[in-house]
Specification:
mainly alpha; Methane Monooxygenase Hydroxylase, Chain G, domain 1
Length: about 100
C-alpha cells in the first residue's frame, strides 16, 4: 500500500473515531434520539468510504498491480485464476 493511501485511510479512521466518541458523548448526555441516529448514519457512511478506498487500493496493488513494483507480497505467487478469486472476495466483502 502506498504511503499516500495509508495516510488517507488513517485520516478517515481518525474521523470515524471522533464520530464514535461524539456518539458516546451524545448518549451520555441523553441527546435526542433522532440526532444520535443521524450521527450513526454519518459513522456508517464514513466506514463505507474507508472500506471503498481500501478495496480500491487492494485492487490497484494486488490485482491490477500483479507483477509490478506496487504488488503486495501476499499476491506475488497468485495465478490469474487466484487473482480473479481475490477480486471476487474483495467485492463480496465490500458489499456485505
Amino acid at each position: 500500500m502506498e504511503n499516500k493511501t495509508q495516510g488517507s485511510l488513517d485520516r478517515r479512521l481518525a474521523r470515524v473515531e471522533g464520530q464514535v466518541r461524539g456518539l458516546r458523548r451524545m448518549v451520555a448526555e441523553d441527546a435526542y434520539c433522532i440526532d444520535i441516529l443521524t450521527q450513526v448514519s454519518a459513522v456508517r457512511s464514513a466506514i463505507d468510504q474507508f472500506a471503498a478506498e481500501l478495496a480500491m487500493s487492494h485492487v490497484q496493488t494486488c490485482i491490477i498491480g500483479h507483477g509490478t513494483e506496487s504488488e503486495h507480497d501476499h499476491c506475488k505467487s497468485m495465478t490469474e485464476e487466484e487473482l480473479f478469486g481475490e477480486l471476487k472476495t474483495t467485492l463480496s466483502r465490500l458489499i456485505k
